[in-house]
């Protein structure tokens, strides 16, 4: 890919990202309907649960580390979330602990 193609690709990706972030605010200037507000409150937890299931679907508990790094990463995530009540810190702690366990211990 040439430099011009790379710049155009980044600009298009940036414009698409900004557009998708801006459209909901433009569409619901006078206030979102009740079902949209419900989805805004219900979907974050559902998406997080879906991601957890997706990440754990290929674990083989009869081979390798028997899922220990994954289990410890989940425990770290839950512990930090219960302690701080902040999803960002919890995800960061779980990811860092999992990566450290996979690369340094197991």
Description:
The chain is mostly helical and 106 residues long. The protein has 2 domains: 1-31; 43-105, no CATH class. It contains 4 helices and no strands. The protein has helices spanning 3-27, 34-56, 68-84, 87-105. Helix 3 (68-84) packs antiparallel against helix 4 (87-105). The longest helix has 25 residues, at 3-27. The protein is extended, with a radius of gyration of 20 Å. The two termini are 39 Å apart.
Largest sheet: none
Q: Give, in order, the helices and strands.
A: HHHH
Unreliable runs: none
| Rg result | 20 Å
What structural class results from the helix and strand content? mainly alpha
Q: What is the number of helical segments per DSSP (H or I, 4+ residues)?
A: 4
What overall geometry do the principal axes of the alpha carbons give?
extended
Task: Determine the mean pLDDT.
Answer: 91
Which percent band covers the strand fraction?
under 5%
Task: Tally the beta strands.
Answer: 0
- State the end-to-end distance: 39 Å
| Fraction of residues in H or I helices | over 70%
Structurally, the number of domains stands at 2
Please give a handful of descriptors for the protein shown.
106 residues, mainly alpha, 2 domains, extended
Short description:
The protein has helices at 3-27, 34-56, 68-84, 87-105. With 106 residues, it is mostly helical. The model has no long low-confidence stretch (mean pLDDT 91).
């Amino acid at each position: 890919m040439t430099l011009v193609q790379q710049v155009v690709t980044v600009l298009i990706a940036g414009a698409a990202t900004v557009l998708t972030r801006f459209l909901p605010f433009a569409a619901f200037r006078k206030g979102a309907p009740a079902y949209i507000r419900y989805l805004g409150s219900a979907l974050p937890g559902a998406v997080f649960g879906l991601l957890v299931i997706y990440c754990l679907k290929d674990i083989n508990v009869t081979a390798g580390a028997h899922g220990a790094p994954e289990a410890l990463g989940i425990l770290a995530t839950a512990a930090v979330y219960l302690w701080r009540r902040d999803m960002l810190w919890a995800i960061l702690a779980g990811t860092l602990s999992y990566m450290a366990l996979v690369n340094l211990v197991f």
